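Risk register update: the risk of archive-format incompatibility is retired. Evidence:
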Amino acid sequence: MTTSRRLPHWLKAKMPGGKNYIEVKNLINKNSLNTVCVEAKCPNIGECWDNRTATFMILGDICTRACRYCSVKSGKPIGLDIKEPLRVSDAVKKLNLKYAVLTSVDRDDLPDGGAFIFKQCINLIHKNSPGCKVEVLIPDFQGDWDDLKTVMDAGPETLNHNIETVERVFRSVRAKGDYRLSLDLLLKTKELNSYSVTKSGLMVGLGENWDEIINTLIDLRASDCDLLTIGQYIKPTPKHTDVIKWYTPEEFIELRSIAMDLGFKGAVSGPLVRSSYKADEQYYQAKRLIPIS
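Archived output:
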């Protein structure tokens, strides 16, 4: 069963525009960079770009997987841009970012899944923008822990890997992924660096039930995950999987409360919350430096 196509009244996002928005957009275009803000049709693009924050999407704009909830193009990528880390680093410096977020398409066609490019981006940002912290939202690297180690050796401040949905629903919307592998990746990250901050994200509205959401949060905590984002799934195009339920703002508030009770160091939960929303605040929350609003 599918729910109404009409969006609930509480799903309202800031319209793109303003001086900062235009400046960020122009800089991204000038440097020939991709952002998940655009590719994934993020509803927060107006708010985030106006605050001079953006999530850079590296390794091209064609994903080797075709998850049924994601609007990023899928297919066979062509080549690898080895100069991309330089352009990303340059954009971070020009934006004077204090916290940079990097994600990528899945590149199962590459021997290392793109881990080397992640490493180069992290290293160059740290070198050219001293004091700027880096969060990476990484793929599962098909369970190759050497690739994960390549990324971790570069010292990202936060390692994010989204679980996306509950175990029962997982295979139907993320056929090339593996729920247990994603949990293992988060746990392995802590084994590689016990001081690292780990993070994961969950979409709701894909057909899961309340108990399954709670069990997923429990699984993430068992994998020593520090930070959590929970947001409403919104169908990006008619060909994507349907929204089964619209969760209310009150339900998102309750989920955040449950997450904090389970021991997450920080949790952001709301209809329009996405993986990188308030990413810097979450990091500092994990370090117990500031409260998160």
